[in-house]
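Standup notes
- DV: blocked on the single-chain target, sequence here:
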Amino acid sequence: MFVETITCPRCDTHYSKGKPLHTCSCGSPLLVQYDLNKVKQHLKKETLDIRKNNLWRYRELLPLKNEANIVSLGEGMTPLITLSSIGTELNIPRLFMKDEGAIPTGTFKARGAAVGVSMAKELGIQILAMPTNGTAGTAWSAYCAAAGIKAVIVMPMETPITDRKKFIISGAHIYLVNGLTSDTGQIASRAIMKYGWYDASTLKEPYRIEGKKTIAFEIVEQLGWIAPDVIIAPAGGGAGIIGVHKGLKEFMELGLIENKMPRLVAVQSSGCAPIVRAWDDRAEESQFWDNSKTIASDINVPKALGDFLVLDALHSTHGCALAVCDSEILLNQRLLSMRENIFACPEGAATLAAAAWLRKRDWISPDETVVLLNTGTGLKYSDMATADPPIPAPDEKVLSL
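- DV (later): unblocked, structure below
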């Protein structure tokens, strides 16, 4: 609504709003910038009190010009759950989980899809295409169906069958690839170039991040306008952490956060941890992770386009990156279900494993407020659930500060 410009965070090139945009000429993702002085005149705590509980309540900080183009399935304002039992055991009394499993399509990807598809509609897009490991495709195909936009989805053969069924039901055109996300990305890119489709790949359009950042807005609002000390989130393509960081900065500049910036933590699987390795090496970007494999399919991303933005978010907030093995993920998924009645996706369960490790090493202190981001429902992974999940061997752990 109050978009000022769209800029490249790497080379500072500015782009005009109101037309289809993808990456910068230098290859970097683009970020939407707002006239925050104008936003401040309209977006106030008291105004939010009377608005509907969905992500469009923050419309002054969203890019849509005409509200008639909003494509909504009721996304936003997911529960912030106190993990009383687990928090007591870990000696983190103020431990919370932002449960995105309750959002339409069962994944936080619905936030990016809601804003991304709404903008595609406003820009007159008729066909969009994207590669996916599963959940992003289910969200974008559902919102495309609601918008009357044709969706072309390219995915690995190993994509969970529940996701494939959702694509078909939504009317998306699906193509299976015998390979990883990186392979599907290359195939999708060639098709997009050949047919002129709108590229909705992760961070190849600037609006997915705008939907994801509303997670940060909601957390701050749900905690009474006090930001938590730590936010722990899974990192695959990186749009979630990039969005949360962007949202926190915007709320800080608007004076809507009354304390300091939270420390951000990126969690990956030890079977695919390019951002963790880059963090360890103090590198500005990651290197391709060969032979990646993990049960947490949404973070099985060997090389993220926006990895440098994720690393910048961690450095600038004095956060960190760490990896946990698949056995730990399964153990913590079961723990969340048994103790707190939350059936988290593997990516969400990984954040609890990270919190426990960080507390043991006093990186997190008992008096701090910590929020874990569960990025989706565990229902589509129900075939992984066992009565006795495996106990991780010591050499399986790849943990880092």
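- Follow-up: The first helix runs from residue 36 to 42.
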